[in-house]
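Notebook B, p. 112. Complex prediction, attempt 2.
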Amino acid sequence: MQQSIALFVDKGYSATSIQDIVDALGVTKGSFYYHYKSKEALLMDIHRQYIEELLARQQSILQDAAPAKEKLSEIVRLLIGDMEKQGPIANVYFRELRHLKEENAKAIRARRAEFREQIESVLIAGIKSGEFRRELNPKMIAFAVLGVTNWSYQWFQPGGELSTGELAELYTDFILHGIMPTQK
Amino acid sequence: MQQSIALFVDKGYSATSIQDIVDALGVTKGSFYYHYKSKEALLMDIHRQYIEELLARQQSILQDAAPAKEKLSEIVRLLIGDMEKQGPIANVYFRELRHLKEENAKAIRARRAEFREQIESVLIAGIKSGEFRRELNPKMIAFAVLGVTNWSYQWFQPGGELSTGELAELYTDFILHGIMPTQK
Amino acid sequence: MQQSIALFVDKGYSATSIQDIVDALGVTKGSFYYHYKSKEALLMDIHRQYIEELLARQQSILQDAAPAKEKLSEIVRLLIGDMEKQGPIANVYFRELRHLKEENAKAIRARRAEFREQIESVLIAGIKSGEFRRELNPKMIAFAVLGVTNWSYQWFQPGGELSTGELAELYTDFILHGIMPTQK
Amino acid sequence: MQQSIALFVDKGYSATSIQDIVDALGVTKGSFYYHYKSKEALLMDIHRQYIEELLARQQSILQDAAPAKEKLSEIVRLLIGDMEKQGPIANVYFRELRHLKEENAKAIRARRAEFREQIESVLIAGIKSGEFRRELNPKMIAFAVLGVTNWSYQWFQPGGELSTGELAELYTDFILHGIMPTQK
DNA sequence: GATGAATGAGCCTTCATTCAT
DNA sequence: GATGAATGAAGGCTCATTCAT
């Protein structure tokens, strides 16, 4: 899975052949098919593992008895910190959904939606508690938060100007400013 | 080009064959190669046309003698409004860069960077003029702005809850709140 | 088609690869798939062509105003004579039906059944006219006639002890003796 | 062997994989190769077992001191009755000979020829004794008898209009009529 | 006796591209 | 401008077989 992720990131799922994968591992094609039923099954495994872990970690954030502000920051940190920990898997995750069979894609899409809805629920809680502005559209803001963070996967280079930690702080700040009421 | 974009959006560049394209048009493969040197040349044309138009429209926004705030809003509107006008082309644009030859990819990446740097320059101008907060990192905010807008291409459905116009307003508001100084 | 029949006869459909076929023709695999949609499509074409010709020739025999005895002999001659004319195609025809998709197999089986039913109808006519014995089961006798003739394809060697013509005479005689009433 | 016969009948030898066989049994491939040296060895075993049993039973028929007429009827009954007893094995027997190595195929073909020659010898004896018509070609009639009976394996459905016993009577009658002299 | 993992060859099919007409 | 036919390479997958455990 690790090797295949690296290759999918580099060349894309369709352009990566099973041969590429097994060559990188020094095994043979037959061996691949002993462990995976198909190329798509491998892709599905990558998707599943990624979203499940993300959801689990999000869950543990939500259980804390912390203000919405705090929870949202944690989720941003979770998503951005992941670039380092989970590495390039997120890249595959965002780009290659379409190569799953509809049946599988649906399952993943559903789990993704759950993740987004949890963000939405934090936003709603924050609006109720007065932490966030009353006039926000929580669904669209949830998408915006995901946009800011996920887009990083397209350009962020570990070892560049900023660490993931610094970037997370920067974006937490930007997002909270965007949604908290103007102070009097 | 139109037909091929539709197919690339649907199945991805690699998974779309020349046969798919010509079948959709009711012509033959030979004919394709009369008009395009290669499959990659077609992809390059799509990329080029898209970014050039975007840059041109951005240019005309920058030439106005308007406050930075205004210019930034216009750029957000430009990007989001495009989902309707240019439709799915942006999708190809964001996903299939990697299938260009390095030489071509470099050219496109350079133009994309220009677009981002122009946003950066608007942000810098705004900071200087006091419209935006002094402590912002303009480069990262430019990326954030692109994240918010470009991410929409992943989930926005024309004819859904919001129009592109409404979404643009919503996001302009979110972004400006995120970067303007807290009012006293 | 000719080459592929020869190979299918020799090694069987499954054991014959497209490579085998195109090698025998001095062309390339790509070329094969330009002309046939799939290996199974080729097999279907062979089946279709064979049974259709057989049915057409049977039809022309049935239209004659001849006694049932005569018609049955003609049909035996048709089937046995074919070994020389159509050669090995019949072999494929009898052995490889199972490799057609159910949908295609059904179509072929239906046409085969028609052929048999025509034999049955000759038998019934002969029974009615008193040419054949009253107590015969026409369906089973039709199968028996097909058994006698089709089985030849398993062992008959052109250029052996007998010509197809002689064999046809021999079998016509055997069959007619088997079904005509005992003379007083 | 039982399971493999069922699969060979259904899909053909080439199209049946070892995996198919061991899956049907709930064991593993390694296990198959503990018991059989190769896929072909299994096929050979099937062939051998079938023809040897047939020959043994034919032998016991031949030893009876009965008229040729009687013996031939017994052999027809043996062959047709087998559809019920031995079931689908005969199907494999007739179709998959070609997948044996030449060396093995030769051995089987030789035993098959013996079976046919025994029928021939019954025919010759019957001709000599005046039971059968003088002008018959015993070899060709032996082939015809095998055709009538073996062809049944292609279409006979247990539980259909006729039992194997009834079919055997019907065909015995047809064949004897075909070869016995016309009564005065 | 049986298993799980691996192998290498081969299979059917698809593909981007070419080119004579 | 367009077509039909061909090509060679590659792609996903299956297979019979092997072997250490």
